[in-house]
Amino acid sequence: MNKYVPYLFLLPAFVLLGMFFFLPFLQTIVLSFSDYSQSLYQPAFAGLGNYAAVLKDPVFQKVLLNTFMYLIIAVPFLTIFPLFLAILVNQKLRAVKLYKVLIYLPVVVSIVVCAIAFKWLYAEHGIFNYFLSLFHISPIGWLTDTKFSLFSVALVTIWKGIGYYMVIYLAALMSVPKELYEACEIDGANAWQKHFTVTIPQLMPTIALVSTISAISAMKVFAEIYVMTKGGPLNSSKTIVYYIYERAFENLDLGVASAMAVILLVIVLAMSAINIFVFERDKYRL
Amino acid sequence: MKIKPVLSHIILITVSILSIFPFLWLISTSLKGAGENIFAYPPNFFPTDFTFENYIGVWGKVNFLKYFFNSFVVAFFTVILNLIFSSMAAYPLARMDFKGKKTAFFAILATIMIPFQAIMLPIYLIILKLNLIDSAGAVPGYLGLILPFAVSAFGIFLMRQAFLAIPKEMEEAAIVDGCNSWQIFFKVLLPMVKPTLAILAIFTFIGSWGEFLWPSIVLSDEKMFTLPVGINNLQGIFSSNWRYIAAGSIISIIPIIVFFLSLQRYFIAGENEGAVKG
Q1: Which of A201, B147, B201, B269 has the highest Cβ tally under 10 A?
Q2: Same structural domain, B120 and B209
Q3: Would you state the torsion angle of the CA atoms of residues B25, B27, B32, B33, taken in this order, to the nearest 10 degrees?
Q4: pTM value?
């Protein structure tokens, strides 16, 4: 075998990853130490100035808080509820295939259409407020009230993610050894006891995986916010990626946006590292 | 391990309806004529002034065929390049020993951990420098949408797993027959990983078809809009004409729904165990 062969096979991938991952990765770090406030073409060295500006920025503090609120709202739900559904659709039931298809459907539809559909449900005289009126509750500004906007946007992320995580759990459920359930049955356990003593302990690695994946994707949320609220009102639904987008592409604050990007990078990197080196070790072993 | 079937059905029917209700409500709104109040309390699920006018109207004002075409071109080439480059890179990582293998492996692994959103600004600056933007023409515009996603660590690791599962004897037999590495790769190994290639193709297609952040950054020319960007733009064009916005949204999701329904076993039958995207 020609000794160059392995490198030739790797070459196209590395050219692309170099151009669109490694180089921009380094450039993000360089930009985060650069000052673009005087000139967009001849940046000055800013030292830690951008980081200091970011940490002092009250909007960034709000945005960081919103991002963690987003995780707190979305992650527990997306970790637990899809597991419950997966257990239900893993039974021999009539029409179970249809249920799976319908529950998965939001996953494949573009997030833009999903967000528009919810914006319509959230309208002032929309259907959600109609349901509230049935309980004599006065209309809520789902997307226009600072108290509710973040929650309303997170609800779309949750709704769109349920099917995806259900299927991950379903695959894991199929590999739980049947004997464990049989042993349980001999001991006279009922259905729920069986799931608590067998399914959940067996699925712990998958539960951990789903919680980190859903946390990472909640960190990266953008389209829902862009389509529904643009981060408003009063920054109440603004999370970190949207704020980076705004500072970078609308305000052209390249240095400040990059400092925030580095902060995002560090957080996501830590979460992914846990994922890769703990929960998915087997898949990524050399 | 039976949970009461009736209870299971009730829960699953409820969740299924909630999963598609937002779309059903869009369909309902899109079929309501000017004579019907779309904000009526109680809401009418079945239109009383039934019409297709909104579909005809929005189709006449928005160039959906162009958006479909743009989305298709971008998704198609993103898929093809991913299939080729990811499996090429995966082959030596799975099957060969060479100097620097460990470095290459961990370099690719590192890209999984770098979120696109954190490096999108420099990527944009690179795309600008290469002049791969829509104001430079259609082909550079498409390239600017495709190239940053033309290979993914996710795809490389997925293909590597597939190659690892093939018995070594297959290759040894091919070497005895006098095949070189390229022939082994294209004639022996690739045909054996077709199911994994199909999974990679389907998931890459869905991802590319629905991608919103990157196209909304690089696109400025309406003629180059992909579907998600075009649909988001409906909100601006028709401000509060929800009948048109609803009709346009429904038109836009028909292709992906057909795609999903015809290939649903790949999504939900547990055949995509390896296909978990971080």
Answers
A1: B147
A2: yes
A3: 150
A4: 0.91
> What does each C-alpha distance from B96 to A45, A284, B99 come to in angstroms?
45, 17, 10
> Taking all residues of chain B, what is their mean pLDDT, rounded to a whole number?
91
Nearest to B102 among A120, A227, A286 (CB): A286
Say if residues A23 and B115 touch (Cβ distance below 8 Å). no
> Do B80 and B214 fall into the same domain?
yes
Report how far residue B17's alpha carbon sits from residue B22's, in angstroms, rounded to the nearest whole number.
9
Is B202 within the bounds of a domain?
Answer: yes
Domain ranges of chain A: 33-279
Interatomic CA distance for residues A153 and A161, integer angstroms: 13
Instruction: Return the DSSP state at A190.
Output: -
As a CATH number, domain A33-279 is 1.10.3720.10
Count of structural domains within chain B: 2
At residue A163, φ and ψ (nearest 5 deg) are -60, -40
Q: What does the pLDDT average to over A178-199?
A: 82
Q: How far apart are CA B101 and CA A66, in angstroms?
A: 41
ipTM of the prediction greater than 0.85, yes or no: yes
* Residue of B37, B119, B213, B271 to mutate, interface with A, max A Cβ within 10 Å: B119
Q: Are residues B91 and B152 in the same domain?
A: yes
- Verify whether the Cβ–Cβ distance B268 to A104 is below 8 Å: yes
CB pairs under 8 A between A and B: 298
A186 pLDDT tier (thresholds 50, 70, 90): confident
Q: Are A164 and A107 in contact (CB under 8 A)?
A: yes
Question: Is the residue at B136 inside a domain?
Answer: yes
Is residue B47 within 8 Å of residue B36, measured between CB atoms?
yes
Q: Is B105 within the bounds of a domain?
A: yes
A45, β-bridge pairs = A34
DSSP H or E run through A45: strand A44-45
Same domain assignment for residues B144 and B170: yes
